[in-house]
Write a structure and sequence with these properties.
Blueprint (H helix, E strand, L loop, with lengths): L2 H15 L12 H12 L11 E11 L4 E7 L5 E2 L2 E3 L6 H13 L5 E14 L7 E11 L12 E7 L11 H19 L4
Parallel strand pairs: 1-6
Antiparallel strand pairs: 1-2, 1-4, 2-3, 2-7, 5-6
Length: 195
């Protein structure tokens, strides 16, 4: 990628992370500051080869008709997670989250809600790779009511679940927080008549 294209992609990513209404994990501003520092100090922050980590975009997919959440059992990580993936040079992390959600669920007509609902930096340890950080920018993605997921090779199973079921599925604190924030944003969007 040319330096100019990198600058534009990094600027796009920065604009998605900077707004004060984007809520992040941990102490106020902690994840935001780590993500912005990664962008400032690593020209390749939008590429999966960047270490100590790289940017990712993920989606909490919700069916608004019954407020169920779609999780997938990730083949590599062996955990129930929300859809998401690597930026691969794309600084529009909302587009990344939507692309990954569409690819991983097979659902057409998904809609991403901006700005992001959560920022999170966490360690991943995939097999046959070194441990590294995902600097994850997380969005609410709304599915057409009654959608049936299909999935792909990246997951062994997909399941619509209620928020109360997440704990029994081994969801970590970050996924629980993401679910709460995404469902709250869904309430706001519905109250504003935007769905």
């Amino acid at each position: 990628m040319s330096p100019r294209l990198h600058d534009l992609a990094a600027l796009s990513a920065r604009r998605g992370v900077e707004p004060a209404d984007v809520v992040d994990s941990g102490p106020p501003g902690a994840a935001r500051e780590r993500i912005l520092a990664l962008l400032d100090h690593h020209e390749d922050a939008l590429h999966r080869t960047c270490r100590p980590g790289h940017l990712t975009g993920s989606a909490l997919v919700v069916d608004p008709s019954d407020r169920r959440i779609l999780l997938l059992f990730h083949s590599k990580l062996q955990r129930w997670l929300q859809p998401g993936g690597h930026a691969d040079g794309d600084g529009d992390l909302a587009r990344v989250a939507l692309r990954e959600a569409t690819e991983e669920t097979g659902i057409e007509g998904l809609r991403v809600v901006e700005p992001p609902v959560d920022l999170d930096v966490h360690l991943v340890e995939p097999p046959a790779e070194d441990a590294h950080e995902h600097h994850d920018v997380r969005y609410l993605v709304v599915a057409p009511p009654g959608s049936v997921p299909v999935g792909n090779h990246e997951s062994r199973a997909l399941r619509w679940v209620n928020r109360r079921d997440l704990g029994s599925m081994g969801a970590d604190e970050g996924v629980l927080r993401l679910a709460d924030r995404a469902l709250s944003r869904l309430d706001e969007v519905e109250a504003a008549g935007l769905l």
